[in-house]
Amino acid sequence: MSDEADPAFRRDVLAGLAAPVRAVPARWLYDLRGSELFEAITALPEYYPTRTETALLEAHCPDVARIAGTGDAVVEFGSGSSAKTPILLRAVAPSAYVPIDISGEFLRDAASALREEFPVLPVFPVEADFTRPITLPQDVAAVTKLGFFPGSTIGNLVARTAVDLLRAMKDTLGPGAFLLIGMDRIKDPEILIRAYDDAAGITAEFNLNLLHRINRELDGTIPIDAFRHQAIWNDRMSRIEMHLEAMRDVAFAVAGQDFAMGTGETIHTENSHKYGLRDARLLLRAAGWGVVEAWSDAEGRFALVLAESEAPRFAP
Ligand code: AVJ
């Protein structure tokens, strides 16, 4: 087996391919090539979320600063290497910036990218898995926190895990915290499907890259040309699903184990849940966050939601 093989990747792929409904966790889509392809997706004409959210941040970060106040510590969940972070930092003028990421490399990139534009802003990177509560650096103990979770990444999670994550964020950020989160809204399925099955085939390449990665890192013999990218709208679950569909009967091996799939069978590779504004409020409330304000674009495609940590209270 190749040296780069990650034991967790091996475990997830072998378990996922053997399951009655085949599925591989979406995070394995993002190797170096996958991350490059996702960057390319964000620039596609059909993929509205990135540009819509960026415009909402440009328009409403001053409102965020007005409501949440300035001088907080901004705590970003996930890599802050994107163009979105400076928009928030410029408006909020925080006393510190705390990027949290599981990858130390992403963190270093994010910190150095910001240093130029914000030379005097104290940056305290935290290398950690933010799905669990984290102890933030002592340096920001005394200030209120503004959590930042853009990109509608929350949509990757099913409701149960999404609530667990939002509750972990509440515990990490502490009393009086705010959370600014991007959520993609429910809309015409045609628009959604085009966003996840673009004409240039970049999303297809992004999805199929998982099979290349399995073959390369786990000694796989998957005949990749026998698979096609599929994006479907699951209305009952209110989500876009990405699958890899076998176009003929196939047999292959991964890490020494044999697998077979019949024509039309799929490997489920990603969920992207979409939320109405009421759904968004309920999801946040279930995790102890009260929505203070939500901003949307004129077409109602995307929502930028500001929530405040709720103190525990008696309820009838
Ligand atoms: C990075 C999870 C927000 O769900 O829209 C884009 C990933 N997948 N096209 C999304 C993705 C296919 C994206 N997120």
How would you portray this structure in words?
By secondary structure, the protein is α/β, with parallel strands linked by helices. Helices cover 37% and strands 24% of the residues. It has nine helices and twelve strands. It has helices spanning 7-18, 32-42, 48-68, 84-92, 104-117, 159-173, 189-196, 202-217, 277-286, and strands spanning 73-77, 96-101, 126-127, 145-149, 178-184, 227-234, 239-246, 250-254, 257-261, 266-273, 289-296, 302-309. The strands form three sheets. Strands 3-2-1-4-5-12-11 form a seven-stranded mixed beta sheet, sandwiched between helices. A hairpin with a 5-residue loop joins strand 11 and strand 12 (302-309). Helix 2 packs antiparallel against helix 8 and helix 3 (48-68) packs parallel to helix 4 (84-92). The model has no long low-confidence stretch (mean pLDDT 95). The protein binds N,N,N-trimethyl-histidine. N,N,N-trimethyl-histidine (AVJ) binds next to strand 10.
